[in-house]
Amino acid sequence: MIKRKKMNSVVAVVSACSLMAGFTSEAAPSQPGGKMIMGTKENHILEVQDDTLEVMPDRIMVSTKEKIEEEQRRIKEEIEQREREAREKAEREAEALRAQYQELMASIIFCEAGNQPYEGQVAVGAVVMNRVKSSVYPNSIEAVIYQAGQFGPASTGWLDRVRSSRSYTATSMQAAADALAGSNPIGDCLYFDQGGYGMKIGAHYFH
User: Fold this and answer.
1) Number of continuous H segments (helices) and E segments (strands) in the chain
2) Given a cut of 70, is residue 93 above it in pLDDT?
3) Cβ-contact 145, 154 below 8 angstroms
């Protein structure tokens, strides 16, 4: 009798364990995301791990996008900086060239008409500009002024001395600036001399 009771107790314990094992194995897959319930503490750790795995790809994508945008901004800024420096360099070179032409023009005006009225000085500069535009003469200010047999001060060396010493007057410098800017009181005239014919301004005749 006692042995039978012991056997019944063992069977009951085994059945209870089996039932609990079956209940656990059936309940586990029913959790969201296939998380296993192994205890409150362990379940919490698994959930945190799963959430981290879900968020990390988005964080990687955001970080990569920000790096690409930052690199694009850096490249754009470098290109803009180079373009700005190139423009500034070109402007400086153009300004230096304009200043050089103005000094050359002022020097020839001073040599040829430094003692003439202001309009006559501008007129000499206009003759130079008319020749630059003409197909008969060279197409640069320096080439026109230094063309052999055309302007006496250029062939005698006086022009170069005035240029090197900058001994032209402020009036000649302003007349040169006006002539370079398009001021022209003598129309299409290509020549000037004293005692000749044509439009008379001061002691010069322009034709």
Assistant:
1) 7, 3
2) yes
3) yes
Interhelix angle 118-133/40-113, rounded to 10 degrees, is 110
| Sign (positive or negative) of CA dihedral 39, 42, 45, 51 | negative
3-state class of 149 per DSSP? coil
Q: Are strands 204-206 and 192-193 parallel, antiparallel or unpaired?
A: antiparallel
Residue 128: both structure tokens together: 């130079």
**CA 137, 182, 168: angle at the middle one, nearest 5?**
80
DSSP of 120-176: HHHHHHHHHHHHHHSTTS-SSHHHHHTSTTT-HHHHHSHHHHHHHHT---HHHHHHH
Q: Tell me: the pLDDT tens digits for 106-137?
A: 999 999 999 999 999 999 999 999 999 999 99
pTM value surpassing 0.70: no
CA distances to 51, 132, 147 from 177, in Å? 77, 16, 22
